Amino acid sequence: MKSPLLPHLDDIRARFAHVEACPFEGPRVFFENAGGALRLKSVIETSAAYAGYPDNQGRDNPASRALMAAIAKGKADARVFLNAPGGEVFVGESGTEVLFRLVRTAALGAEPGGVMLGSTLEHPASRSAMARWAEVTGRPHVLVAHDDATGTVTADAYAKHITPDLRVATIVQTSPVTGMAVDVARIAAMIRAAAPGCLILVDGIQHASHGHIEIAAYGIDGYAVSPYKVFSRHGYGLGWASERLTGFTKETVIGGSPRNWEQGTRDAGAYATFSDVVAYFDWLGGVTGGGDNPRARIVAAAAAIHAHEAALMGAILNGIGNRRGLADMPGITLIGGAGEGREGVVSFTLATMPAADLVAHLNARGIRTHIRLNDHYCGNILAPLGIASCVRASICHYNSPEEVGRFLDAMEEALA
Predict the structure, then answer these.
(1) CATH code for the part of the protein at 45-279
(2) In what residue span(s) does the Aminotransferase class V domain sit (predicted)?
(3) For the segment 212-270, what is each residue's pLDDT rounded down to a tens digit?
(4) Residues whose CB falls within 8 Å of the CB of residue 150, separated by 6 or more in sequence, listed in order
(5) Looking at the predicted structure, is the pLDDT value of residue 87 above 90?
(6) Quick check: do 6-39+295-415 and 45-279 share a fold?
(7) Mean pLDDT within 374-379
(8) CB 227 within 8 A of CB 207
(9) Which of 382, 407, 385 is nearest to 326 (CA)?
(10) What is the bridge-based pairing of β-strands 222-225 and 332-334?
(11) What is the pLDDT at residue 264?
(12) Residue 261: what pLDDT?
C-alpha cells in the first residue's frame, strides 16, 4: 500500500495515547474514530496543567495574563487551521451546542420571511436546530433529499431547492454514518449566487480530522468543529462566525461587547489544547514536505492524511495482500455503496449476523467498532434503506495497514 505517511507512521502513533491498547480491556485496534478520535499526548498534558491553574482571566497578575495569552493564541491558531482571517472564533460546550447557537443567531438575525434550507444527510445537531428555529420564526424548513445509493447529497440536488428567498442554509461536510463528503464550496457558491443574503452554516464536525478546511474559499457564515473528534478532548466545541453573523444580536451580558459569542469565563485550557492540535498538524506537514509557513504545512498535512486514509479505506473495501475487502465479501451491504468520496468511515451490514452481534464478535477479536441504529441519530440514513442497525468502522491517519488486515481477518471469521 502506497501512502506518504507510512515512513512516519511510528512517529505519528507515538504522539497519541492508547493507540494499541485500551486502558480498560487491553490490546485492540481502534476503528471507532468517528465516535471520537484518539487524543494527542500533548493535549492530555496541557489539559492537566490548565485544570490546576487557580487564576482567572482579566486580572492584573502574571498568571491571568498567561491565560489570556493562551486564549489569544488558541484563537489565532484556529484561524490558521480553518483558514479564516475574518470573523470570530469562539468555544462553546460542544459542537452540537455551537451549531445550535449559529443557527439560532442566523434565524433571528436574518430578514423576515423566506425559507430555511438543509438536507436529509445532516446530523440531527444541525437538522434539529434548523427545525426548531424555522418553527419559532415561522419559516418553512426545506430538506434536500440525499441519494441512498451513494450516501451523499450533491450540488445538483441542492440546486432544485435554491431560491432567491433563502434566509438560512446548512450543509454537512461529511456524513458521520456513510462517511461520504459533500461539495461545500460548490453548494455554497450556488446558494450565494441565487440568494446573496442567505446565511450559510457548515457542520464540519466529521470532516475536520480527515481533510483541510478552507473557510476563506467557501463563502460561508458559520462553521462548527467538535475538537474531541480532531485529537483534542471532550468538554468544548469550536465555532467560527463571519463578520456579518457576528454583527447580529446575540445573547450577552448587558454592557458586554456586541461581538462576544461566549458566555461567562471560558476554559483557557480548551484554547490551549486546540493549539496543541494545530501544532500537531504543523509538525505533520513539516515531515511530509510542507511549505515554509504554518498554513502551508497544515495543507500539506491534510493532503497526506487524505492520501493515507484513502489507501486504508481502499484496502478495507477492496482488500490488501491476499485478503479480500468488504466489497467482495458475500452478504455484506455497504451503506452508500463502494464508490469514491469516503472520509474515514464505512458502515455496513452482514446478512448472516445482526449488527450488535457483529460488533461483539469484532470486539472479542480486539477490533473496536460501533453499532448505529435506526434512531434519532441515524434514522435519516437507515430508515429509507429499511435497515434497523449497521456496524460503523471508522479509521484515522494513525491507523495502519496491519490493523486493516486484522479487521478483515476478523470479518472473514464472522463470515465463516
Answers:
(1) 3.40.640.10
(2) 29-407
(3) 999 999 999 999 999 999 999 999 999 999 999 999 999 888 998 999 999 888 899 99
(4) 180, 336, 337, 339, 341
(5) yes
(6) no
(7) 90
(8) no
(9) 407
(10) unpaired
(11) 87
(12) 96
| Average pLDDT in the chain | 96
The arrangement of secondary structure in 6-39+295-415, i.e. its CATH architecture, is Alpha-Beta Complex (3.90)
Round to whole Å and give the CA distance between 210 and 179.
Answer: 10
pLDDT of residue 144: 98
Single out the residue of 257, 263, 242 nearest to residue 109, CA to CA: 242
Handedness of CA 324, 326, 331, 337 (dihedral sign): negative
- The amino acid at residue 365 is R
Q: What are the residue ranges spanned by the domains of the chain?
A: 6-39+295-415, 45-279
